[in-house]
């Protein structure tokens, strides 16, 4: 009897260790060749092979987590492919001063596809360029992010949003293309179903001081809104953009005042407010 109890106790211990090992966080080496690791120390990291969700995920359900500050990550034109859930690259809150570059030999872009969020940033002082966000639920999510700058990106064929700024401030989206996304190409708001929802309010929900500059969109699919700002989000600059062929409005502002957001020098066919220009 004692032997059997010992055997059962030993088996339980072995299984517990195995489960903990399976759930343990793996940390990235400077050369990354598989999904499922976290960057937890400052430095320069390169992606040196195409990455897929089937290789494994982090404990947060991402291909790559970035938890450290002062990180440079070069994806070198490699793709990062998901299986419908999770996040391609997740920049966590508390991290800052991060540089992401997609360019590599023979390719100026890296494609991130098949995720709930291709890139989610909750970090501050992020600079990124050269990514395609294709076939995700949302391409780029800036959730509470501060001082992020994303340029020369393409967000298309995403089920909900190409770019979503939720509770973020002083972020820049510039010189990019968004088209054929489900609800909106670029959305500043707090709801997953678009700007017709109730106003954003409360700490962490509203976005202000963001700059959307020279973003182009000519949608051929049933994208409802081109560039949309939900009510409650104020003080954003929306300048020199081109949005056409959206089924609801090319440009949309849910606020009642022309002074809430600055719309200037945009090209479009339809807008819901007369002060949008």
Report on this structure.
The protein is mainly β and 277 residues long. Helices cover 8% and strands 41% of the residues. The chain is built from one helix and 26 strands. The strands form two sheets. The chain has a 17-stranded parallel sheet that branches. A nine-stranded parallel sheet has the order 2-5-8-11-14-17-19-21-24, with no helix packed on it. The radius of gyration is 21 Å and the shape is globular. Mean pLDDT is 91; it is low at 1-23.
What's the short story on this structure?
It contains one helix and 26 strands.
Write the topology of this structure:
Elements: H1 2-23, E1 31-32, E2 37-39, E3 43-47, E4 51-52, E5 62-66, E6 71-74, E7 80-81, E8 87-91, E9 96-101, E10 110-113, E11 117-121, E12 124-129, E13 131-134, E14 138-143, E15 149-151, E16 154-156, E17 161-166, E18 172-179, E19 184-188, E20 211-218, E21 225-229, E22 237-239, E23 242-244, E24 249-253, E25 262-264, E26 267-268
Parallel strand pairs: 1-3, 2-5, 3-6, 4-7, 5-8, 6-9, 7-10, 8-11, 9-12, 10-13, 11-14, 12-15, 13-16, 14-17, 15-18, 16-18, 17-19, 18-20, 19-21, 20-22, 20-23, 21-24, 22-25, 23-26
Q: Largest sheet, described in full?
A: 17 strands, parallel
Report the CATH C-level class: Mainly Beta
Provide mean pLDDT, rounded: 91
Query: How many β-strand stretches?
Result: 26
- The structural domain count equals 1
Q: Characterize the overall form.
A: globular
Say what the CATH topology is: Pectate Lyase C-like
- Tally of helical segments: 1
Q: Could you name the ranges where pLDDT drops below 50 across 5 or more consecutive residues? A: 1-23
The N- and C-terminal alpha carbons lie at a distance of 83 Å
Order of helices and strands: HEEEEEEEEEEEEEEEEEEEEEEEEEE
Radius of gyration: 21 Å
The proportion of strand residues reads 35-45%
Binned, the helix content reads under 10%
Second-tier CATH architecture: 3 Solenoid
Structural class: mainly beta
